[in-house]
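Hey,

Quick one before I head out. I ran the complex with flavin mononucleotide overnight. Inputs first:
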Amino acid sequence: MDNGHKTGNGVSTAICGTAPVPAEEIEAICAQFGNDKHRMLDILREVQDRYRCIAPATMDHVAAATGLTRIEVEGVASFYSFLSLAPKGKVTIRLCDDIVDRFSGVSEVACVFEEELGLKIGETSNDGAFSLEYTPCIGMCDQAPAAMVNDIVLTKLTPETARSAAQALKAGRSAEQLISERFEALTPSERALHMVDNNIRHAGEVLLGPVPEDAGLAKAATITPTQIISAIEESGLRGCGGAGFTTGRKWRFAASERAEKHFVICNADEGEPGTFKDRVLLTERPHLLIEGMTIAARAVGAREGILYLRGEYVYLRELLLQVLEERRRRGLLGKDILGVKGFDFDIRLQLGAGAYICGEEGALISSCEGLPGEPKTRPPFPVNRGYLGYPTVVNNVETFCHAARILDKGAAWFNAMGTEGSHGTKLFSVCGDCLNPGIYELPYGHTVRELLAMVGGEDAAAVQVGGPSGTMIARDSFHRKLTFDDLATGGAVIVFNGERNVLEIVEYYMSFFVHESCGYCTPCRVGNVFLQKAIQKFRKGLANPEDIDYLKDLSGTIIETSRCGFGMTSPNPVLTTLKNFPLVYSAVIKPSKDGIRDTFDIQSAIDGARKIAKRRSYIFDKDFTQ
Ligand SMILES: Cc1cc2nc3c(=O)[nH]c(=O)nc-3n(C[C@H](O)[C@H](O)[C@H](O)COP(=O)(O)O)c2cc1C
Ligand code: SF4
């Protein structure tokens, strides 16, 4: 993962920013997390927050305290884009660079910040006061352009609001004061709602309508784990994180594994550009989510759970910690939950640090284990051997919320909604060129055209269903249904009008995948770079008819040979637009010169991938020794 700075090998002092960091302070941070190597991400996040970088000597101290090697610590520190080996500014401004933000004017906002702070994107000021950078989707596409200022989120930025924010920061006001002068006096929930609108446009029957408190958990406490699993199976609930695996089966597999411990993990990584429905559930229905996790714990016999929150949603940390604490006080977490002997379960919050791949469940587990967020080889599956080698249920935020409602209202109630194969309701996060971006909770089975009418997106020329790794469809497919069997989506629906350049969107999505590949396997690490370069060739009007075959062949190879779901879906922007927008490609193709293809410079094509993987070229680097 490229975090845009050098590793600083050879520097021996523990200097972060301007001040040396005493070893005792680093040791105290490690001790705070029990010197546990599995809490490495928490340790390094704390070091980063406090000293604005993770200096080489700091890593030595962390390694000594946790019993790891320096290389292992550096492997984690250099993987996540919110951790930095070079000093960051006291105030780090991360402008969301998603395609929706681009189309909403983020570059004008960036120019204002550059002008006011005297910095270019990617730079840190000499006095260490400010860093300014772009970051991929921060989950605010319904209120773009958006930015993170340290842990604070700014939305609906304009050049004017950006200027006053920059001037206020320069005048010494804190990021929190940009939100409210009374920030400190606000509750965690009020703070979150001051920063971010939830834009609930349509509340459905299951999740966003009235929800009685802990009725599902009360029911679960009176029945056996097997009965809980049967109820979830009969409801037809399928995972809402994208893959759509049957939730009841997943829980049954985990429950049937004999092991000393079981774990339940909530995937709140929500990194797919254009998806923001989990953000809304985390803000509006945090109790329902924890209720669902607790029910899952009873079903599979887990005593420990982890709520993995993406680093971009750090503004929700206090709110969630408060909810966990409140539930402990009320006997809804901890020992003998609801007075049931032996029903013990508690949850820790694990904050991510800016890595899309950590949404993939194997990578998510690696990240929870304090490792770089690399996917794991399957099998074994997490339900057999997951977190620390124990059977683990990983479910999406929305899936856990649904499970709690099913226990309360019954499997038949849920099963009756939606369509054959896609039961219940789904949260759609709709953004882009429409009048009413936001959250729509609808039963499965609506067509894209019906959804567009609801959101004021009738002018759409293209709709990206399921984010970049999903499908881009044209008008002639707007009759298709939003279901697992037709157009599946983890939630993202991005609307584009006829003025948008489809190839620009495709190139952007491929650049996103190039940036976010974990780099473990060659087809994904290198192949996505090739695809992006090939799309650039089309955009420049330099492509031949043969390049269409090249795009298809290369996409097929990446899909077939990649190790995880990332590489198996990353060519989708190319493949789905080739299929659904063929004229976009043919319009920019120039005829072959006697059927001979332009030469292709393989070394420059893989240059980007090589930098990401921190590998040198054996042709160009004379001192290459690997
Ligand atoms: C590259 C990649 C990114 C993913 N990102 C997420 C994510 O942000 N949130 C999520 O719930 N699932 C994500 N998934 C799916 C998870 O791997 C996993 O299937 C899911 O968390 C299981 O929960 P569910 O069955 O409730 O959907 C991602 C998968 C891949 C391949
Ligand atoms: S497919 Fe991509 S993201 Fe997945 S393991 Fe390979 S390099 Fe990493």
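The first strand starts at residue 15 and ends at 16.

Talk tomorrow,
K.
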